[in-house]
Design a protein that fits this description.
The chain has 103 residues and is mainly alpha-helical. The protein has two domains: 69 residues, no CATH class; 34 residues. The protein is 84% helix and 0% strand. The protein contains five helices and no strands. α1 packs antiparallel against α2 and α2 packs antiparallel against α3. It is flat, with a radius of gyration of 16 Å.
Length: 103
């Protein structure tokens, strides 16, 4: 258990380092690493998204503090993002698993 925890910690650290440096790829790198370790896709996705809630929240707080937020853009992206999330969740809940693997 301790070795697995250290491995997960290292994967998270490296992926977040890349994400912080380049501004991208945390989810892709971490999810790929977790799937390679044999975690089921749903569990890997849940772990990645839980971690992203906290890292994205910290980023949002920093942008708010430095008054670096374009609220018109937030509104436009927020509406389309929510619609996309609802559509994606519905789609994955209503298609057979074989079709999702091919995508």
């Amino acid at each position: 258990m301790a070795a697995e925890f250290v491995l997960l910690l290292a994967i998270g650290f490296v992926a977040q380092l890349v994400d912080g440096t380049l501004g991208m790829a945390y989810g892709v790198l971490t999810n790929a690493a977790l799937l390679t370790m044999g975690l089921p896709p749903a569990q890997a996705s849940a772990l990645v998204h839980t971690a992203e809630v906290f890292t994205t929240g910290a980023s949002a707080a920093s942008h708010l503090y430095h008054r670096n937020v374009d609220w018109r853009m937030v509104a436009r992206l927020g509406v389309t993002g929510v619609l996309g999330a609802i559509l994606g969740a519905w789609l994955l809940s209503n298609i057979e698993i074989g079709a999702a693997r091919r995508i």
